[in-house]
Amino acid sequence: MSDISESITGFFTRKTKASPPPRPVLSNALRFPYGQFQFRFQLAKGAAYEIQTTRDLQNWDPLSSHKAESAETEFLDAAAEKFNVRFYRVVSETVVSANVIGYVSISLSPGFSLISNPLNAPNNTVEKLFPNLPEGTTLHKFDTMLFRLNENTITRGKWSKPFETLAPGEGAIVLNPTPDPKKLDFVGEVLQGDLSLTLPAGFSIRSSMLPLSGPLHPDLQFPIAEGDAVHLFDREAQKYVIYSYQAGQWTPDVPVIRVAESFWVGKTSPGTWIRNVVLNSGA
């Protein structure tokens, strides 16, 4: 009888392991015209947190530490104007935010450029991504089924195809018709998880699914194959530079991709660009 009493007592007095608090989610990202960056996140009132930042998605540095004064916290990075690329996450105790957000800013040279959207925005339509480009700006995406370029133009202040999208991994040719560079700000989330991008046989315009720069292969893990060719566009010279892959070597050199840059790729056979991305597994 005493054994049963002890078992019942032990059952009711046994301490249960506390479940970790929910992971904060960063939202409402905004880059102001003068360069500052703002976002929001939710934490329990009084919870201690640290905001961390990175430019390469590998090395995280502490930026700010506080305690949440309310259920929703708004953070403004006044130093963001000093950087063209910056990403953020929040760590509360050992819990890391579920997502990483940030911005990428590039200069759109006069004439043609091959660009990409390096971040997943809440709305990836051209009217939302590029709201302030000048009259006469054109954007061309390549239709791999019809094997032709489609044209989207700003006329009387509006895109002719405002709901056309440009998602991470895709690419577009953009014409800046003015003699002056135009600034483009991309704001959104860094894609995570098991990512894949179809690479059809023949030509297509593609880009990195991640906001990273570097050699296309092996650093960016592009699935290059014998006989493939990559065409990068030199914005300053307004001409293409062709890189071919033969006998296991690049000619003239390994193509280096910039953040928010796209490129033509000619594949001898279909392929898939796969990235397995885990950014917030721990602090």
Structural key phrases:
single chain, 283 residues, mainly beta, Immunoglobulin-like, 2 domains, six-stranded antiparallel β-sheet, 2 helices, 46% strand
The chain-level structural class is mainly beta
What is the succession of H and E elements?
A: HEEEEEEEEEHEEEEEEEEEEEEEE
Q: How does the overall form come out from the CA principal axes?
A: globular
Question: What gyration radius follows from the Cα positions, in whole Å?
Answer: 23 Å
What does the largest sheet look like?
6 strands, antiparallel
Question: What is the arithmetic mean of pLDDT?
Answer: 92
Uncertain runs: none
**Total number of beta strands:** 23
Distance between the termini: 50 Å
- Portion in helices: under 10%
| Strand residue percentage | over 45%
Structural domains: how many = 2
How many distinct helices? 2
